[in-house]
TrEMBL record:
A Pfam family it matches: MFS_1
PROSITE patterns (alphabetical): MFS
Keyword line: Cell membrane, Membrane, Transmembrane, Transmembrane helix
Listed transmembrane segments: 7-33, 45-65, 72-90, 96-116, 128-150, 170-197, 218-238, 258-277, 284-302, 308-331, 343-362, 368-389
Name of the protein: MFS transporter
Source organism superkingdom: Bacteria
SUPFAM superfamilies, per the entry: MFS general substrate transporter
Domain named Major facilitator superfamily (MFS) profile: residues: 7-398
Subcellular location: Cell inner membrane
Length: 407
């Protein structure tokens, strides 16, 4: 295998690890609630701690990549991941899990900041789009496999009591610790290239942030991404508990399977969205998928058990295109400082911390079903973006005749 192919495989492995580790949180939520005797509010701090780290480190992470380079940033990211995973594995207590998830979140955020420019540098400008799609497919595959593997491992452990099931999920974090050590070694041994950041990947200094934050549309797009990530993580983290509470389905069985299908259909939706974006204006695609998502959430929350186990994953298909469309609409609406704007937008990942926590807080007071109706507000805001967004550059679409090879 050539050095270039080896480094590309390493990058794809990083994408797989980011997704697999991140998407274990959802299936773990009901298990943590039972084992640690948590209220819904306390359980909400699990995704909160992880995604709070994402929001806090996105902009500083961009500055770190510029000043220290890719290899140093990767090293710090893996060290943070290792520290967080070991904290959870050694002391599987609620406080340690909160601190460990926060530390892992810091590392994962740094990985996402550095891995895209590294992918472009290794793969080359001409192949960047191809490799980016490949990375998203790898990410989607890991998102699908993570809850599925968790479900199968929990089933093998049986239902003989907390010690058996606790050993399974703690074992995951021991395995993650070993994996992060191996990634650290690979980071030192592989001949990683020096990153040459493009203008739209640079932060452009603090003055650029002041200019951007003075714009109303930048704030609205930021809120849109907060709404999207909050919606995605609320569904991923609370659907298993919802199915257990209202339909008495096993969190480590049917609940984890539903989470796996949610992520699997999201990957499928990305491919469908790519095709639709060749035919329709991105704002129309966003409006269509937002309306479908609202319908799926309504059916999931107020339908029967059979409808809920289908509607929750189907919502993943509908959410699939939202992040990329909102992000691209924001970039295409601002003429300059795209690197700084990307940092601001990525900070919107804070939504994954805020909304699941708010749902847990309200769930203790008005019930989880009513608390999850907050999704109607966030998805409606995303739908509104399709109406008010005025991009300077619209996505290129192909005439129907051209698609069939006609002149």
């Amino acid at each position: 295998m050539s050095q270039r192919a080896l480094i590309m495989a390493y990058i794809m492995l990083i994408w797989f690890v980011i997704s697999f580790v991140t998407n274990l949180i959802g299936p773990l939520m009901p298990i943590m609630i039972e084992e640690f005797h948590l209220s819904l509010s306390m359980a909400g701090f699990l995704p909160f701690s992880f995604f709070l780290a994402y929001g806090l480190i996105s902009i500083p992470g961009g500055l770190l990549v510029e000043r220290k380079g890719g290899r140093s940033t990767l090293r710090l990211a893996f060290l943070l991941n290792l520290a967080g995973a070991l904290a959870i594995a050694i002391q599987p207590r609620y406080a340690a899990v909160i601190g460990g998830l926060f530390t892992i979140g810091l590392g994962m955020a740094l990985l996402q900041v550095v891995v895209n420019p590294l992918l472009r540098t290794v793969g080359g400008e001409a192949q960047f789009a191809f490799y980016s799609v490949m990375a998203q497919l790898i990410f989607g595959l890991a998102s699908f496999l993570s809850p599925l593997v968790f479900s199968r491992m929990m089933a093998q452990a049986g239902t003989g009591g907390a010690p058996a099931t606790a050993g399974v999920w703690v074992g995951f974090y021991w395995a993650f610790s070993v994996l992060f050590v191996l990634l650290l070694v690979a980071n030192q041994l592989l001949p990683l290239p020096t990153l040459a950041l493009k203008d739209d990947e640079k932060t452009s200094g603090w003055q650029a942030y002041r200019v951007l934050l003075a714009r109303r549309d930048v704030w609205l797009f930021f809120v849109g991404l907060v709404a999207y990530v909050g919606s995605e993580q609320t569904l991923a983290n609370w659907m298993s508990q919802f199915l257990s509470t209202y339909h008495h389905l096993s969190p480590s069985g049917a609940g984890a399977d539903a989470v796996a299908r949610f992520w699997g259909l999201m990957a499928l939706g990305c491919l469908t969205g790519l095709g639709l974006l060749k035919l329709l204006d991105s704002r129309r695609v966003l409006a269509l998928f937002s309306l479908l998502a609202l319908g799926c959430v309504a059916l999931a929350l107020f339908g029967s058990a059979a409808q809920a186990v289908l509607a929750f994953p189907a919502a993943g298909f509908c959410l699939s295109v939202m992040f990329s469309i909102i992000f691209s609409l924001a970039l295409n609406s601002v003429p300059a400082h795209h690197g700084a704007l990307s940092g601001i937008l990525c900070t919107g990942i804070l939504g994954g911390a805020l909304l699941p926590l708010l749902v847990g807080f309200l769930g203790d007071r008005i019930g989880l079903r009513l608390a999850m109706t907050l999704l109607f507000l966030t998805l409606s805001f995303i739908l509104a973006i399709a109406g008010w967004a005025r991009p300077l550059v619209r996505n290129h679409t192909l005439p129907i005749a051209q698609l069939f090879g006609q002149q």
